Amino acid sequence: MTPNPDIVFRASGLTKVYRNGALEVHALRGINFQARKGEFIVILGPSGSGKSTFLNIVGGLDTATAGEAWFADHQLTALNEKGLTQYRRDHVGFVFQFYNLVPSLTARENVQLVTEIARHPMTADEALALVGLSERADHFPAQLSGGEQQRVAIARAIAKNPEVLLCDEPTGALDSATGIKVLEALTQVNRAVGATTLVITHNAAIRDIADRVIRFADGRIVEESVNTTKKAASEVVW
Amino acid sequence: MVIAPLRRKVLRDLVRLWAQVLAIALVLAAGVATLILGNGAYSSLFEARARYYEQNRFADVFADVTRAPRALLAQIEEIEGVLDAEARILKLGLLDLSEMKEPGSVLFVTLPDSGKGLNQLHLRRGRLPDPQSAREVIIDDGFAKAHTLGPGDTLPVMMNGQQRKLLITGVALSPEFIYALGPGQMMPDPRRFGIVWVPRSSLEAAFDLEGAFSNVVLKLAPGADPNRVIEALDRLTAPYGGTGASPRKDQISHAFLDAELKQLSAMVKVLPPIFLLVAAMLVNMTLSRLITLEREQIGLLKAIGYSSRAVAQHYVEFVLLIAVVGILIGMAAGTWLGAGMAQMYARFFSFPYLVFTRNPQIYGLAAVITLASAIGGAVYAVSTVVRLPPAVAMAPPAPATYRQRMGWVRKLIRLKQPGVMVARHLFRWPLRTASSTLGVAMAVAILVASLWSFGSINYMIDITFFRSDRQDAQVVFAAPEPQRTLFAVRKMPGVLVAEPFRTVSSRISHRQLSKKLVIVGHPAGSQLSRVLGADLRPMALPDDGLILSEALADALDVRAGDLVTIDVLEGARPTVTLRVSGISLGFVGLSAAMDIGALNRLMGEDALVSGVNLMIDEGQSPAFYAAAKAAPKTELITITALMLSRFRQTLAENITVMITVYTSLATIIAVGVVYNFSRIALSEQGRELASLRVLGFTNREVAGVLFAELAVVVLLAQPIGWLIGYGIGLAMVAAFSSDLYRVPFVVGREVFATASLVVLAAALVSAFAIRGRINNLDMIEVLKTRE
Which of B417, B691, B698 sits opposite A116 (nearest CB)? Predict the structure, then answer.
């Protein structure tokens, strides 16, 4: 297989089975997937459909039971714990529903946490400026609103100039006005950094800002659609 | 039996948190064990001694005379307050055992009157001698064991310069020689010093003391003032060479037991409080965290109708169970250590019976104190449970607030963000950081406060035997001899250098203070036995005036240049006033030194010598021993090397035990504090650390964040521990110093280093114990849940 340099992610037959005693739970049942460089993909699906498991495997947080997943020329499914850590460190930015900021560090310091160990980072202040939080750089998480905390998390995720940005329910804990601000930040950094962005959401309205939309159900991709009329985040309503 | 659900939760919590529970329980157990050990050993020793004294009628006052007629005894008995008096003969003799090349000595003591006599014997084996027999004797148990002698065996000795073969009829113990320290010895050595009880008539004949005595012991009526009796006694014995009576507290065996009791009570004041304090702190730390984690459950329990009291009681029960585990372990350990201690005492002290106490009061007291300290540690945490309203409890806690501080420090040391996390977290809970640091510091302190003594003892030996009293051997004459005896000694085989000395029993007084001791006269420029100044250089002996040891100067409140009054207690018994020309260094006993010529002039006597210090050619020492033993004037031969090796051997036997015990105790504290601190830090920061893993930090880097926090606490604790340990050591020196000995306080760098190494090793082990938990942090779980 000659890899197309434009393809960042490839997965084929990706399967994940959780075993709990005698009980087997099939979280992923043979996923085939590709993502192009800079693409903004929204992943939809009900709870338990396997979308988070998929994101965790391509993000190097979890391992597959069968099948292959590739990031550029790294075979993720062949990497050990150490290799996966290095992969996350060098290439991946994460944004989660509950922000996962370090409470003892200010916004700037939370971003610096990543810039200190990354290979080609931007400065923390640049990253914060990208999400519109330059003014709040010296505040601790406890002093920021939920939306602000999530934007710090985005700044922290993109500060390393990652090739991929993985977001699991980034607006899940936010009201719609704040959620839209967060989405704006995401689309803006997607454009600015050129990172392939995968966003998991329950919120079907978000599909309008994507280049492509994928729907998961029962561990499989059941629908895939290319969005021809991509909207700006500010135009989305829910 | 139905177990209430909350009770079941207590038990499950104990099982779930077993490692932390055990760590705390062990610290409590160490407190219990040291309490039981200290109080138990004290009461065992104190009561065994009191019972022994009572049953065997141990005397209250002791006095030596040169030779007093037995008729004097009636007058002594007349002294107000005297219940009973017994006239005895006490004389030193030399051992003449063929299998023993080195010299040894025996103390002959008049066999006490059976039934109503004082210092009665406790017969272990055999029978009492026939009072009319000239050969039959009883020997002491330790001596008998050291030479495997028993009833029916003969004992060859030099008695008043004559070879005698005594017949042993029995083996006994005496309350007078519980700690049987031979003259000129540093430690009991039953092989080279024994007690021989001889019937009165036989002893009178052997020492030409028919109808006379050389020692008298008194039993006082209850409530009698020993000082007034001693005054009266001294007046009566003065014409007969009385060297001044001593009360029981100055009797050697009694005083050494007192010193041991004093050490035990000091230990009880230091060690258990440290453990109980650290345990209380650990209880507070761990329970506070548990309560924080169970905040919502507490709210729920209250919401469904459990009273605050019931919920609080639940947590108190949790702590009480930990305390009970600790108490049980501690009692077992205390009993076991106590039995070991009793065995160790049996090596130094001869009691008819000495068992470690089973007094339930001692065990009960330890349990109560421990429960109290555990509950004391729980009070604050439990009070937060009581105060928490259910509605507030069920909402998530307010996020921890952090502040930026000491920015200049950061600029100075350029901390990276994980370092900032560590610093802020430590500052966020200053009390916990401080108490954990103090806890680890206590582990260091325990080691510093126990390990210093070995270096100090070595220093004491070095100064005493290699710089001050450098003689290989000392020969003491039965009575002062003219100079020609010195020349005779010089001619003995193997003698390289011989320097005479003179000893004179005196009472030295300054203002209201006085001490009875022996003034030693040295020849000018003597090379063997030297008087050292504080700078360790030999001091020149003045033509008149005298030099007092530091301990004596302190006891008399004397400074160089002061005048002291000297009442000589022998010969013509002159009283003179002399100037103290200097203060000398000295660790064993009280001492006063003069120029030998000046001392003889003071006595108004010719040049007399009491004994000779010698340097011996090692190759010829057996020949020298034989010659010295055969010399008729010799009363005692002391060999420095033998005394030292006995001392060092005993020290080496104890050092391993002591180091093991103290290292274990310190390790228990260090592990308890470090393990609990890390578990709590991990529990609080687990989410943050898992987030770091997600961000691409390696396991090692994440563990580094937690370990850095630990490292700060442990490293900060070192100098604090050194200081506290130094302070405890200093207090111990002050508490232990007595007229018998005074321990120099020398703490070498190796003491601090060893203490720190032990504690650092314990900290490392406990850190590694939680390494697995860090490696297994669940990254995915942490992302799905709100804190």
Answer: B417
